[in-house]
Input
Amino acid sequence: MIYLDAAATSPVRREVLEAMWPHLTGEFGNPSSHHAVGESAARALAEARASVAAWLGCRASEVTFTSGGTEADNLAIKGIALGDPRGRHIVTTPIEHEAVLESVDYLVRLHGFTVTFVPVGRDGLVAPADFGAALRPDTTLASVMLANNEVGTVQPIAELAALAHAVGVPFHTDAVQAAGWLPLDVGALGVDALTVSGHKIGAPKGVGALYVRGRIPVEPLVHGGGQERGRRSGTENVAGAVALGVAARLALADRAARASAAAAARDAFIAGVLAEVPDAELTGHPSSRLPGTASFVFPATNGEAVLLELERRGIVSSSGSACAAGSEDASHVLLALGYPEDVARTAVRFSWGPEVVAADLAAVAPAVGEAVRAVRGLAD
Ligand code: PLP
Output
């Protein structure tokens, strides 16, 4: 089986699992307990936080562990917006993950916020001029994802964040898909808040983190014992945090070399698929894209049917975002990019981690051709 759905999730890496194990067994303490067992858990948690902070180029006190990317996005959007009483307007894009879109929708429905969705081009890029024009004196937060989970387009985040700062608006970015591929230094990106998730980089599902700069007020969403500096109550997931800390170290190591090797394999794969299926279209930006994602529309097919044909040939991929929980709707991302609904339903996304070798990817392109021809009733 060739697993090409890394954007949905990836396996836990051995080094990560080995680092977690003691914290699930012998060193099981509660970091808030005032005895040796608790103190050892507190030390492990602090070490993990320092490792995530080193990855993001921030202070450890600026990292809040969460139950994953979804919770980190919720905390960023609702927590920062509700923590600032000065305005009630949000700027975002229509291609964000549901964790951002639904959090914004909650603020609109229950807290009287208004939202401006900055349009994206056919390549998925936000034009800085459009973004700048959407900012208003009462804007409390802007949120634009670093890289899109369906088409892989990478946004000019530093430029967008600078525009937001020029008018005093805090800027959040969802870096869940960029993690492991792109530099996440929050200083270089110029962002005030940034979301990461463990299970895209070899840590388990159910752990993530939110960076929030300095003293930006964040209204907590989970109330209780005041853990995570009051931002996220609940006994900490120590083993999960340790896992994220180790995965962060691995994500930082050799990142540039891994990313450029994967980008070369990606470009060869894209060329191979387009040679096999000449009327296929690569979605997203041709060059400003993740090294581990290539998504296509295959006219006169159905994405789900192509997936089944691929699976029969031992290739696991996706018709878009796994996060829409089995939704049959056409992708909101492709619709926002301007694809008609019937074309959006023909999308197939291939995504991989650094462990996929170029030879595996090269072998997939002919199978994609076979699968598309099978769905079109043109058996080889
Ligand atoms: N943001 C993006 C861009 C994602 O791709 C995902 C998950 O796929 C999430 C947020 C949610 O992260 P989690 O699955 O950790 O809740």
Notes: The mean pLDDT is 95. The chain has 13 helices and twelve strands.
